[in-house]
Amino acid sequence: MNIDSVLYPLEWVVAWLMVGFHQVFSFIGLPEDSGITWALSIVGLVIVIRIVLIPLFVKQIHASRRMQLIQPEMQKIQKKYKGKTDPESRQAMTQETMGLYKRTGTNPFSSCLPILLQAPVFFALFRVLQSLPNIASGTQEPVGLMTQSLARSAEGSTVFGAPLSSYFLEAQNLNTQIVTVVLIILMSATTFTTQRQLMMKNMPANAMDNPFAKQQKVLLYLMPVFFAISGVNFPIGVLLYWTTTNVWSMGQQFYTIRRMPAPGSPAEKALEARRVKSGKEHKKFSIPGLSHDSEPDDIQDTSATEAKPKSGQRQQPKRKKRTKPPVRGDGKQGPPHLAGGKPQDGKPQDGKPQDDKPQDDRPPASAGGDA
Prior knowledge:
Number of strands: 2
Largest sheet: 2 strands, antiparallel
Helix content: 55-70%
Shape: elongated
Distance between the termini: 105 Å
């Protein structure tokens, strides 16, 4: 299976959506051959794709929040096996990490799904725009609803004097170069703003020192450079698609950070302050299977300590089964430690003589009855 057979269905979907939005905008009065109409069709394509990806985006947010919560446990595992390079330790560390993922229901790859699924659409649009001149000239078969006449219309349309399928490196006029540079700058700026917003507002302070956060800081400044270098090889239509995607991501992320921030982040503290100010209860995000309890040795020591009697209290022995003590002459029952109503030293308790005859073991009929 080659890449053509994989991308062709996506090319058909991309062409179908572009033609559909083009017909809608033409129906409401926009010129059919205008570059603005075709540019808005690409924007509509972006909106549809991002709406379809919203469920995956929600999963990405939950996965990111779970990853933030399990970071303390991850650091414990890393600290436990720090400096151990033998295969047994490496395998044990991997097993404990995978066990933590399974116990907490965390998938570290869920945060990459929206980007991974957008990449094929990106390349499909790239191929559709690249094939517009061939479809318009009749040397290539139409792609989906993109017929020869529509391809000719899209190929001849311009945005500020720049065709949608033109490149910076193959620009025929200055307008194409200017439009391309402006789109590359906008694409890089929106990417930088989106990543910086994520790091500054939606990452807890303890997560800023780990290797992943340091890598993100490096990528924060390398990504605009990458887009500036690679953007000269993309058609204007693709640059427009990517810039629109970044603007959507920036707005979607702003809403998500405000409503569902990462645990321990500055955005969560701001959300808690807003809810407390409005009189609402703030419930922190938690996941099952995650525990920050003490180590097993500490738990055993604690249990042993709790089994000892508290200070200042004498531990009472278990009461043995014995006969009920007799009732004294004054109608009161003798102390439980006395046998036969006499104290242990043989002296009467109240100073009165008592009968030395053995007492009947049967209980008295009433408190005021005979002994």
